[in-house]
Amino acid sequence: MRKYLVLASIVLTTAVVAYVTTYLGALGPLGLDTRYLAKLFLANTYNPAHRELTAMSPEAVTSIVWDFRGIDTLYETVVFYMAIIAALAIYRGVSYSNVRRGSGLSLIVKVVTKLLIPINIAVAVSIAAHGHLTPGGGFQAGAALAVVSVLLAVVYSAHSFVELGVNLSRAVALRSAGLLAIALVVFTPIVISALTGTQAYLMQNYVKVDSAFSFPAHVQSQLISGTLIWFNLAEFLAVSFGFFIIFMLLSLREEVVREWVGKEDEH
Amino acid sequence: MIDEIARYVGLALLVAGSVINLIGAVGLSRFKNFYLRLHAATVSTIGGTFYPLLGLVIVSLATPELGELRFFMGGSLLVAAFILLLLAPAGSHALARATHRAKISRPEPVIVDYLAEDRGD
Q1: pLDDT single digits (tens) A1-60
Q2: At how many degrees (to 10) do helices A70-90 and A168-196 cross?
Q3: CB proximity under 8 Å: B 82-121 to A
Q4: Counting beta carbons within 10 angstroms of the beta carbon of residue A146, is it exposed (0 to 12), middle (13 to 18) or buried (19 or more)?
Q5: Does B19 reach chain A within 8 Å, measured CB to CB?
Q6: Looking at the complex, does the CB of residue A106 fall below 8 Å from at least one CB of chain B?
Q7: Model-level pTM?
């Protein structure tokens, strides 16, 4: 009886919400200006005829994320950066030196994982390097590469990070290199135009009405979409090693972390 | 003619996959304990995903209207099917092994359990 009551209430709620939102127009009229904005983006993501408006990329999402609203994405990256700094601050002083080697999962899973990891890395790199042509981009590629760290910790052992030479400070250095590369791409137009005595904007991609600076959209007839490929690759580095840091910290055993935190409390 | 036959074979695999998926879903919710449910889950990953992917490979290769793109589609589907064939058994093996070691679920009915005897339980 109870089951039917739940079922009936779900169906009734769905019907009421659907009726109110569509026939009664509870969400208000469908915004025509929103459609106009969508049309504008779709018309300009790849439009060689309007170089001052286009992002020269057939991938509308990457164009919007790294060109039309680039500064918004830059701040999102900064938020992610701060989150990892917070995690590192909580785990400060914890090192991998006294992590013991675990036995991991069975041989079957280990062999399959050994086959999977190169495929995983190849997929991640291709998501990043094709981010301006196909769905994907730096963040998605970074998340795909971070899966490798989870596989290593779960299937082998957290000690495999030590064996592979991936330690926390190296991961932090690589992530910072990614962020510095983003900053470099952001400031390049300003620096170059200052040297040549013209004007440019932060994060500028192609020529604007009052600025002649432009990143190359093609390299030997291969579309690279100006800044988009550089932003994607740099974000890939930053995000993948950011996630690496998080998963390396989370895969530490609780006793190891407690030992370190307890040591600090004694002082 | 051969294209037509191949396409129907591929579509038949697709339909068989959806039926197997339905059977797997029913088994997953109705079977009594963990090991039986795991069996139902693997039925729907191999039977319900691997074979439909193979069917799509055949359909895409047997559709000349797609042009050169059909080799690209068929190839990537074949790679996806191969990776799935590797991963699904490894995943269910890891789940079953972990459950057996942790003694979370008892296989029922159990006739003989050499693994537990070897471990001395």
Answers
A1: 888 999 999 999 999 999 888 887 777 666 666 778 888 888 889 988 888 888 888 998
A2: 150
A3: 83, 86-87, 89-90, 93-94, 97-98
A4: buried
A5: no
A6: yes
A7: 0.81
For A3, the domain range is: 1-30
Dist CA B98 CA B104 (whole Å): 9
Q: Domain of residue B103: give its range.
A: 2-119
Query: Residues for chain A: how many in total?
Result: 267
- Give rounded-to-5 percent helix, strand, coil for chain B: 85, 0, 15
Q: What residues of chain A lie within 8 A of the CB of B89, using their CB?
A: 108
In tens, the pLDDT along A181-237 reads 999 999 999 998 889 888 888 888 888 888 888 888 888 888 888 889 999 999 999
CATH of the domain at B35: 1.10.287
Kindly write down the DSSP assignment for every residue of A225-240, as one continuous string. Answer: TTHHHHHHHHHHHHHH
Residues with Cβ < 8 Å from A51, sequence gap 6 or more?
Answer: A206, A207, A214
Tokens of A44: 């300009």
DSSP B110: -
Q: Is the ipTM of this complex over 0.85?
A: no
Residues A136 and A238 in one domain: yes
Which positions in chain B touch A112 (Cβ < 8 Å)? 86-87, 90
Helices A107-129 & B69-102, crossing angle to 10 degrees? 140
